Automatic annotation (TrEMBL):
Domain HTH cro/C1-type: 17-71
UniProt name for this protein: XRE family transcriptional regulator
SMART domains cross-referenced by the UniProt entry: HTH_XRE (SM00530)
Organism field: Kribbella speibonae
Classification via Pfam families: HTH_31, MLTR_LBD
Coiled-coil stretches: none
SUPFAM superfamilies hit by this protein: lambda repressor-like DNA-binding domains
InterPro entries for this protein: Cro/C1-type_HTH, Lambda_DNA-bd_dom_sf, MLTR_LBD
């Protein structure tokens, strides 16, 4: 089971670094070559025989692709101050980010688009997501609205998704990779919850012409076919910004595009 934040702070920095190295499936030799230090030094850091400098913690974290939130935890465990800020999205310092996000979402209309945080809670959305929030249980629309729970819950979109087995399988696989990459206990809890939702159908194997899993949603008696993409900010220096994901939906056929334009 993943460690809590309190347990993480009590663990030495070398132990935490070893955990990230093993999670990335790297040997000490492979990591040492990437960081350009000796394997002996990596071993000494991991076992606590050598105390790494602030710069070494940062270099190791960079080559291990450790998320910014967890890099701050590594620094704290090593006795150093955190480097990366974590500002609320609604703080004055985030005005430029909020403005950019809202412009992106508005420009994507009439097609749905939303912004989620690390735990898939919706923090911004455009008018197009009205096709997702219609006919779902009100309890799923109470803040914070979780996009994955909204999609897969039996009282949410699941009952309107024609290919729910395929969508569920793809979503769980993606979330499982995120859990493995971050070791976040809250994401693990979300994964366990979503996996526990009862689904009668098993996903059919993809056809030879399929390259992505479509999102086939019934809305007002019509079946819409959508494709989805995920975008993130490049080179973020703030924890909150680094964890934002912009999910954009596109029509997979002309009929869906025409219908969504007519709705707007």
């Amino acid at each position: 089971m993943a460690a809590t934040i309190e347990e993480t702070f009590q663990r030495p920095v070398g132990e935490l670094l070893r955990g990230w190295r093993e999670r990335r499936r790297l040997s000490q030799l492979e990591l040492a070559n990437r960081v350009e230090v000796s394997t002996r030094h990596v071993s000494f850091v991991e076992t606590g025989r050598s105390k790494p400098s602030r710069e070494m913690v940062m270099r190791l974290a960079e080559h291990l692709d450790v998320p910014l939130r967890d890099r701050n935890q590594l620094l704290l465990a090593g006795g150093f101050a955190p480097v990366y800020s974590e500002a609320s999205l609604h703080s004055p310092s985030m005005l430029a980010i909020r403005t950019t996000l809202r412009r992106l979402l508005k420009a994507h209309e009439p097609y749905p688009a939303l912004v989620v945080d690390r735990w898939w809670n919706i923090v911004e959305a455009n008018a197009g997501i009205a096709i997702f929030t219609a006919e779902v249980d009100e309890k799923l629309l109470q803040a914070p609205i979780n996009a994955l729970r909204l999609t897969l819950h039996p009282d949410g979109l699941a009952r309107r998704i024609a290919n729910i087995a395929e969508v569920r399988s793809a979503a769980l696989a993606s979330l499982q990779r995120q859990v493995a990459g971050t070791a976040d206990p809250d994401l693990q809890d979300l994964y366990d919850e979503l996996r526990g939702y009862a689904v009668d159908d098993k996903p059919a194997p993809p056809g030879p012409a399929e390259v992505v899993v479509p999102f086939n949603l019934t809305h007002d008696g019509r079946e819409l076919s959508l494709l989805t993409t995920i975008a993130t900010f490049g080179t973020p220096l703030d924890v909150t910004v680094s964890e934002l994901m912009i999910e954009s939906f596109y029509p997979a056929d002309d009929a869906t595009a025409e219908y969504l334009r007519a709705l707007s």
